[in-house]
């Protein structure tokens, strides 16, 4: 991992925010509470650093974060600060998959960001170290960092090592797809049982270039995380050292006055993040999370930006699910920075963006060799990136398709229309579809779902049944980073908001062209207008609690499915 170098950006933080809770006669009750935690007079005079994690045993992805957070706390103390550790929530996609619980997964991103904001503003912390381990926890923590704009360091807890089955590496994706294999008769129930017992041999996140590892890579690329930290396996002996380094670096940032998160998250660095995702065939969920991070910084960033960057960026990393390698393999050849070094060499990366040390990205990349020739290719796998944005009369604001690993980039078929994931899943389980069908799942968007459910259950069944490219799936819902095949999601505007998917009828001819970036139904504008006049939004069960609030506030998927007005407009009340 790189070491700090001469700072190129300095800002001044004249008064520690925490002093509003500690200084003055009328703060005696506040100080009494702090003394209840064991703080001394000397401690109360020091900077207060929040150490937030999504630690807990609700998911293996996060269950090891508490130990890492404590290592960061030790380093904060040793560097002259006082750490205050606290935990946020996590919703595991693999536990909420393919049932109503998935409606809470994407909203949990906002709950994490809001919760960390509430603690850090409510207690007036001076800095922040965040730890996250699974799909929505990573962007949730990073969004909080950018929103707060305090001295901060992000730490991804790391990926698991793969399981081994019959001489090959396996992940939980193999188990999802094996369910379809059993239904299709190409695998036995005994083989599925064997996979179930070995595919996830321990704690930590899924080891492919799925959403967690994609967003870990984004954290390094943006400069919010320490170089080399995201691909280090979660159970590696280096992990406690990374956590301690995060605690030390946050104190350096505080003392130096920067760089702060909004110095790091800029239009250029966001473009770099998109390039890294495209170059590695990363998760389509980055198309939600990168615009959401931009929104926290007051930057408008949409699928149009992702499309522009992906088109100019070659696919150079042969990563699962579309390729052969896992996070451990990328780490073995130099990690994220070797991908970035190759992109810089090819002229598709902004080298003048800052890193967490205040140095430029180009400075940090000089010591990295770039492509190894196998995991990170010297000759591109594809000349454009592993994710394509499609537009047309079915998705005027865009839809996403992961093309990494696809054999055919064009598809034409007839629509089979379903108004929920469950309705489509029932058909897929019975294999009651035909080659050439386009399975349209609608009313699953951020507002219409609500919650924009992830559909790995359906997509993995199709792939496991051998139909991953003989049928297509189109939805205003979203996909797992592990999804592969002719699966198009995130269609915007969503059907629940009156988007074109709401107007599709059974048998409509749909044309998908990932080469041209188009997605159209062969339906005339006049016919669509006639259907729109007759359209009525379907009735759904009354909402309450978190989903009621989410549905009322959430914006469109192409802008990140965010729930507040953004960094440029926000003002934190004084006093």
In round numbers, the mean pLDDT is 95
Strand content: 5-15%
Q: Which bin fits the share of residues in helices? A: 25-40%
Structural class by helix and strand composition: alpha/beta
Rounded to the nearest angstrom, the radius of gyration is 23 Å
Strand order in the largest sheet: 7-8-12-11-10-9-13-14
What are the low-pLDDT stretches, counting only 5+ consecutive residues below 50?
A: 2-10
Q: Terminal Cα separation, in Å? A: 41 Å
What form results from the Cα inertia axes?
A: globular
Count of strand segments:
14
Number of helices: 22
Largest sheet: 8 strands, mixed
Based on the model shown, name its key terms:
22 helices; 13% strand; globular; 575 residues
In words, what does this structure look like?
This protein is an alpha/beta fold and 575 residues long. It contains 22 helices and 14 strands. The strands form three sheets. The protein has an eight-stranded mixed sheet with strand order 7-8-12-11-10-9-13-14. A four-stranded parallel sheet has the order 2-1-3-4, sandwiched between helices. Helix 6 runs parallel beside helix 7, helix 8 runs antiparallel to helix 9 and helix 13 runs antiparallel to helix 14. It is globular.
Helices and strands in order:
Elements lengths: L18 H4 L5 H9 L4 H4 L3 E6 L11 H14 L3 E6 L5 H4 L8 H18 L4 E6 L4 H12 L3 E5 L6 E3 L2 E3 L1 H13 L4 H10 L12 H12 L16 H18 L4 H4 L2 H14 L5 H11 L6 H10 L14 H6 L3 H10 L15 H5 L21 E6 L2 E8 L7 E9 L2 H9 L7 E5 L14 H9 L7 E4 L11 E6 L16 E5 L4 E4 L3 H10 L10 H9 L22
Parallel strand pairs: 1-2, 1-3, 3-4, 9-10, 10-11, 11-12
Antiparallel strand pairs: 5-6, 7-8, 8-12, 9-13, 13-14
């Amino acid at each position: 991992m790189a070491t700090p170098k001469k700072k190129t950006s300095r800002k001044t933080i004249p008064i520690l925010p925490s002093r509003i809770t500690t200084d003055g006669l009328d703060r005696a009750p506040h100080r009494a509470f702090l003394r209840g935690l064991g703080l001394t007079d000397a401690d109360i005079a020091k900077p207060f650093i929040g150490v937030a994690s999504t630690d807990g045993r609700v998911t293996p992805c996060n269950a090891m974060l508490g130990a890492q957070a404590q290592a960061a706390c030790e380093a904060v103390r040793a560097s002259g600060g006082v750490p205050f550790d606290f935990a946020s929530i996590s919703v595991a996609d693999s536990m909420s998959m393919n049932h109503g619980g998935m409606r809470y997964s994407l909203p949990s991103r906002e709950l994490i960001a809001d919760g960390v904001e509430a603690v850090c503003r409510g207690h007036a912390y001076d800095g922040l170290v965040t730890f996250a381990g699974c799909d929505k926890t990573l962007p949730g923590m990073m969004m909080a960092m950018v929103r707060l704009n305090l001295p901060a360091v992000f730490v991804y807890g790391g990926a698991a090592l793969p399981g081994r089955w019959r001489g090959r590496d396996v992940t939980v994706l193999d188990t999802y797809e094996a369910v379809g294999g059993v239904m299709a008769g190409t695998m036995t129930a005994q083989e599925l049982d064997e996979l179930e017992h070995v595919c996830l041999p321990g704690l930590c996140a899924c080891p492919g270039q799925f959403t967690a590892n994609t967003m870990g890579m984004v954290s390094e690329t943006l400069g919010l995380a320490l170089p080399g930290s995201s691909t280090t396996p979660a159970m590696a002996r280096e992990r406690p050292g990374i956590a301690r380094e995060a605690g030390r670096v946050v104190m350096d940032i505080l003392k130096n006055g920067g760089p702060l998160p909004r110095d790091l998250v800029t239009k250029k660095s966001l473009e770099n993040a998109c390039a890294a995702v495209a170059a590695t065939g990363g998760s389509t969920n980055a198309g939600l999370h990168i615009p959401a991070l931009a929104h926290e910084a007051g930057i408008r960033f949409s699928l149009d930006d992702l499309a522009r960057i992906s088109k100019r960026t070659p696919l150079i990393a042969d990563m699962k699910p579309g390729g052969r390698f896992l996070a451990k393999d990328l780490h073995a050849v130099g990690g994220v920075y070797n991908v970035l070094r190759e992109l810089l060499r090819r002229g598709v990366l902004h080298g003048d963006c800052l890193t967490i040390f205040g140095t430029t990205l180009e400075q940090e990349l000089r010591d990295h060799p770039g492509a190894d020739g196998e995991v990170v290719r010297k000759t591109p796998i594809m000349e454009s990136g592993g994710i394509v944005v499609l537009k047309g009369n079915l998705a005027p604001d865009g839809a996403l398709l992961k093309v990494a690993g696809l054999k055919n980039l064009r598809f034409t078929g007839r629509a089979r229309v379903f108004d929920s994931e469950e309705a489509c899943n029932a058909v897929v389980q019975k294999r009651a579809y035909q080659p050439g069908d386009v399975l349209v799942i609608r009313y699953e968007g951020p507002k219409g779902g609500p919650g924009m459910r992830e559909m790995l259950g359906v997509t993995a069944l199709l792939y496991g049944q051998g139909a991953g490219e003989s049928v297509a799936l189109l939805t205003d819902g979203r996909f797992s980073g592990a999804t592969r095949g002719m699966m198009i999601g995130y269609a915007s505007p969503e059907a629940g908001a009156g988007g074109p998917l709401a107007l599709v009828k059974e048998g409509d001819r749909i044309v998908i062209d990932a080469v041209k970036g188009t997605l159209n139904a062969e339906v005339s504008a006049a016919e669509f207008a006639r259907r729109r006049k007759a359209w009525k939004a379907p009735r759904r069960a009354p909402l309450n609690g978190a989903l009621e609030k989410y549905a009322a506030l959430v914006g469109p998927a192409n802008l990140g499915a965010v729930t507040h007005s953004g960094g440029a407009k926000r003002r934190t009340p004084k006093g």
